[in-house]
Amino acid sequence: MRIVFMGTPEFAVPSLAALLSAGEEVAAVVTQPDRPAGRGQKLAESPVKRFARQHNIPVLQPEKIRQATALDMIHELAPDLLVVAAYGQILPQRLLDIPRIAPLNVHASLLPRYRGAAPIHWAIINGEQETGITIMRIVYRLDAGDILCRCSEAIGPDDTAGSLHDRLKDLGAACLLRALESIRRGDATYTPQDESLATYAPQLRRADARLDWRWPVARCHDFVRGLHPWPVAFTTFRGQNCKIHRAEPGDAPPPIRSDGPPGQLDATAGRLHVRCGDGRWLHVERLQMPDRAPVSGTDFINGWRPRQEDRFV
Questions:
Q1: 144-196 pLDDT, tens per residue?
Q2: Contact (CB, 8 A) for 173 and 14
Q3: Cβ contact 272:296 at 8 Å
C-alpha cells in the first residue's frame, strides 16, 4: 500500500521503520519544522526527519498542515493510507479525506481512555496497571475515531513515563502492522468507541509538575513516576524548587515524629523521607536543586543538612 506517514518525536520512529521493513511504499514523511534545541538553541531535526533522510524518503515540513500548499502536495501523492503517530498538529478534514482507504492514528492508550496529548504520563499518574496502543481511524474530534486494533501493555510498579514510552513505541509498530494486515486481508473491522468511558490526558506543562504532599503516598509516588523524565515532579526546599527524580513508598524507621505535617522531612539512618497526607512516608532516592546535578537522598542530606523545621512545600 502507498502510505504518507506523519510523525515527529522518537515515539513515531519504530512505526515508520516497521512500514519500511514490511515492504510498504512510504511515499513521503510529514514532520514538524526544525526547531531550536539545546543550550545553543540551534535548529534541530525531528527524530522522524532524521530517520527519513537516512532512508531517502522525501520529507515535507509545513509550518501549518492546514496550508493549502501542504494539502495539495499530500493530495498529489495519492496515498492509500495516511498513518499518523504523534505528529503534533490538529489535522483538518480536507487532509483526512485524502487517503483512498483511511487515515489511521497510532495512539498510546487503550481508547477511549486517555484521549489527548499525554496518555503515557497520565496513565501512570493515575495509578493505572494497564495501558497499550490503539490504532484508530482519525476523525475531526480528539482521538474519537473508530478502533481498528488494540494491543495491551502492563504498567509495572516501578515504570516511569520514560520506560513505558520506550515499550509502547515498539508495541505501536507491532500493532500498526497487525492493523495493516487486516486491511490487506479485507477483514478490517472498525469498532465505535464507547463515549461513556472516555477520559482525557491533557498536555503537561512544567507548572503542572508541583507535588502536593497532602496527597497519599501512593499518589505522590505515581506522580513522580509519571513525570519522569519530563517535566519532572518538583517541590520547594528553603525557597528553591527541588526536582524529585526517583522515589518509592516506604515507612521511615523510628524514632520519628508521628504527628508532623505533610512535607515533613526525616533523615533517619541517612535516608531522606517525606511525610505524605495519609501519614505514610515517601523515600526520595534522587533529587536535584537548581543549577546542581541530581544527587542521591543520602548526598542531599550530607550536603544540605536538613534542620528539624525544614519541610518540602
A1: 999 999 999 999 999 999 999 999 999 999 999 999 999 999 999 999 999 99
A2: yes
A3: no
Cis ω before 229 (30° cut-off from 0):
yes
Which amino acid belongs to residue 61? Q
Lowest mean pLDDT among 162-176, 228-242, 256-270: 256-270
3-class SS of residue 274 = strand
Q: How far is CA 221 from CA 73, 127, 282, in A?
A: 47, 9, 7
Q: How far apart are CA 175 and CA 167, in angstroms?
A: 12
The amino acid sitting at 307 is R
pTM, two decimal places: 0.95
Domains and CATH numbers, the chain: 2-197 (3.40.50.170), 206-304 (3.10.25.10)
Measured distance between the N- and C-terminal CA atoms of the chain, rounded to whole angstroms? 56
Would you say 101 and 80 are in contact if contact means Cβ atoms under 8 Å apart? yes
- The cell 526527519 sits on which residue? 49
| Distance from C-alpha of 205 to C-alpha of 197, rounded to nearest angstrom | 25
- By the 10 Å C-beta count (0-12 exposed, 13-18 middle, 19+ buried), 117 is classed as middle
